[in-house]
Design goal:
Length: 189
Amino acid sequence: MVTTGLLLFGLFGVILSHTTHPGRTCPEVTPFPNLTLDKVLGSWYVTHQFDTDNTCVRWTLSQSEQPDHLNLLENRKKTSLLNIFGYNHPNTVSADIEILNSTVPAKGRIDWSNSPSGKADFIIFDTDYESYMAVFECNIAGFVHRRSVIILAKAPILDDIYLKRVQRLLTNMEIPYDELDTISHSACN
Ligand SMILES: *[C@@H]1O[C@H](CO)[C@@H](O)[C@H](O)[C@H]1NC(C)=O
Ligand SMILES: *[C@@H]1O[C@H](CO)[C@@H](O)[C@H](O)[C@H]1NC(C)=O
């Protein structure tokens, strides 16, 4: 039943960083209780994401000038498509995250500046603040919805303990993670 972006668009070499599922309902993901947003601000290595072949992906989260908003900057090294044409330079994308209800700070809506598909739910569902953080994104488009799981770490390689923990949480929430890919940070500037 699960149609992955990879299967649909693999012929064209486009990697979508999400999976596509039938139905207009995103899975229930519990936001991390009483998240202290200040403690997740700063720079993270993105070590895992659904359906990606990017490398060297970093996120920097910062307070926005707008109350109840965060800024997100994503830096990445390349996509394979660009590689074909010999471009291999860093690539920066920004996003605005709005926290809709301040009593649930782990749940927001993200608006990627380069996304044609509109805003997505942005739910921080696990973190220990010091080593790792796990994020679920979901948006509805027509008769399908798109999911992505992003795992971030303070070190370039995520400790297996945290990966197993996040996988267990995803299993409990009945969210398949076969498409969870590792993002290499071994050949970055
Ligand atoms: C979250 O904070 C509220 C209010 O301070 C408190 O009542 C509640 O028990 C906390 N929940 C957890 C899971 O820590
Ligand atoms: C914010 O979330 C809390 C806890 O889920 C809920 O009780 C409250 O009604 C929400 N407020 C708004 C304005 O949606």
